Amino acid sequence: MAPRVLVSDKLSETAVQIFRDRGIDVDFMPDLGKDKEKLAEVIGQYDGLAIRSATKVTAALLEKADHLKVVGRAGIGTDNVDKDAASKKGVIVMNTPFGNMITTAEHAIAMMFAVARQIPEASASTHAGKWEKSRFMGVELTGKTLGVIGAGNIGGIVCDRARGLKMKVVAYDPYLGAEKAEKMGVEKVELEELLTRSDFITLHVPLTDQTRNILSKENLAKTKKGVRIVNCARGGLVDEAALAELLKSGHVAGAGFDVFAEEPATDNVLFNLPNVVCTPHLGASTSEAQENVALQVAEQMSNYLIDGAVENALNMPSMTAEEAKVMGPWVKLAGHLGAFVGQMTDEPIKAINILYDGVVSDMNLAALNCSVIAGIMKRANPDVNLVSAPVVAKERGIQISTTNQDKSGAFDGYIKVTVVTDKRERSVAGTVFSDGKPRFIQIKGINIDAEVGAHMLYTTNEDVPGIIGTLGQTMGQNGVNIANFTLGRASAAGEAIALLYLDEAPRKDALSALEQTGLFRQIKPLQFDIA
Ligand SMILES: NC(=O)c1ccc[n+]([C@@H]2O[C@H](COP(=O)([O-])OP(=O)(O)OC[C@H]3O[C@@H](n4cnc5c(N)ncnc54)[C@H](O)[C@@H]3O)[C@@H](O)[C@H]2O)c1
Ligand SMILES: O=C(O)[C@H](O)COP(=O)(O)O
Questions:
Q1: Cα of 144 from ligand 2 centre, angstroms
Q2: Domain named D-isomer specific 2-hydroxyacid dehydrogenase catalytic: which ranges (predicted)?
Q3: What is the pTM of this model?
């Protein structure tokens, strides 16, 4: 059945066409995002949800989203999505980090000009037939100092455009390297210095616990008299009430706000103050940006739903469609190795160590790690997937470590997974053959060569004659067909292992018959998702 996607915000219909062209069943309901009850009623039918900022993807909504695999944000900010709840539920959250950055940077620059020259008020006055030529005295941008808080994608473009306007640019961004700052032609400063030196301040940080209220009452008080402040990033970054007071007192000469602590903002402390220019969250609203983000989000969501490619996800390592093709068998192998050790381990797991050797060590290890962890975690929770597995492992305090090496041996590459518990360590290794089929190649340090099947039986025994016969005969007597039979033995310890690939899961009778022979130390039926 074709995957189903719901578009619940005002996305360009380009997205709808792309979903259709990719064979996805799409419902376009651009106002549904504002109606949380109705959205909750229908969300259970969909594999994908495409949104902008109006739809709130809360934990309560996700509770009802039984088939949801991906939330695609046609835009940048995902503060309207509960990403922790999505990860726990195994839902990928992706955005389009570049599609509207130029448009938003241009809006910030437009706001600076509008505030510097009081254009909206002058326009309103002129429309009213007042011709107040001497009322609107502005300031030039040339030669002024612009303080940019957050010099990422949008902040970086603002810096570039501001330098073109002959402004001096200082930037506060703890994650901006000195070399990058130099390349951008900006002076990297601490927040205190930015506040005291800037004639204009513009914000371009996401809203996080660290950035919330970054322009607090206290920080606003440190700004230069006559400063003009622009916020085209997120409401909540600036103390709006404190700013309103400073605008009234004349300490702040003007402000340009596109975003507000509460949106939609129909009433706000900044409204109707002199020289405050407001727009209703229009930063990304150009035809170019909306085409870009709609196209990108629809492509990304389709690629994920159809090919498993992960792009611009916030809660899962990326994997391009190309990588997904090449890595597909290795991702499967990683899951099987995880499933093997997971099913073999009944006690709490303390640590998971993953070794990548040879060709696989150059691949996207983050995605492979997720697959190993998901395979292991499924022993306790079959609903765990690649997105939720790392969250579940973290919640349980399991330490994950990886090693990658290139010690070419008998195989082009292999993965070895070891789980550590209080009682023991258990390991299994596997590879992918040239036919693209994953194989188990080592269990407990004993070499084997076993194809992976949906139903398998793993046994260990003292290395004595008669084991093959007993296994074959017992399965046969109980009507279980053996598709493949692999044996291995430790050279010194006298232990042997067998891994049988069966046409169906062995029934209890067959397992008790094996137990009754007294020949086996361990008899463990295993299941693998080979679909
Ligand atoms: N008004 C709109 O319509 C609109 C449109 C697009 C994006 N946005 C918003 O603009 C903001 C920036 O988007 P972006 O694409 O440039 O993001 P980005 O991730 O590319 O850049 C954010 C920058 O902030 C920096 N940063 C993080 N924490 C910081 C801190 N505590 N102090 C200082 N700097 C910090 C990061 O290092 C990064 O360089 C986001 O909040 C986004 O939601 C608004
Ligand atoms: O984060 C973003 O991309 C912007 O805030 C745009 O939001 P919008 O899609 O609701 O206009």
A1: 29
A2: 5-315
A3: 0.84
Nearest atom in ligand 2 to 234's CA? 5
Q: Which CATH number is correct for 451-531, 3.40.50.620, 3.30.70.260, 3.30.365.10, 3.30.110.70?
A: 3.30.70.260
- CATH class for the region spanning 4-98+288-312: alpha beta
Report the CATH number of the 317-443 domain.
3.30.1330.90
234 is known as an active-site residue: yes
Structural contact between residues 107 and 258, judged by C-beta atoms closer than 8 angstroms:
yes
Domain ranges of the chain: 4-98+288-312, 101-278, 317-443, 451-531
Point out which residues pair with 50 in neighbouring strands.
7, 72
In CATH, the architecture of 101-278 is 3-Layer(aba) Sandwich (3.40)
Of 429, 312, 445, the closest CA to residue 372 belongs to: 429
| Residue nearest atom 11 in ligand 2 by C-alpha distance | 284
| Chain segment 87-119, per-residue pLDDT in tens | 999 999 999 999 999 999 999 999 999 999 999
ipTM over 0.90: yes
Name the packing angle between helices 101-116 and 153-164 (round to 10°). 50
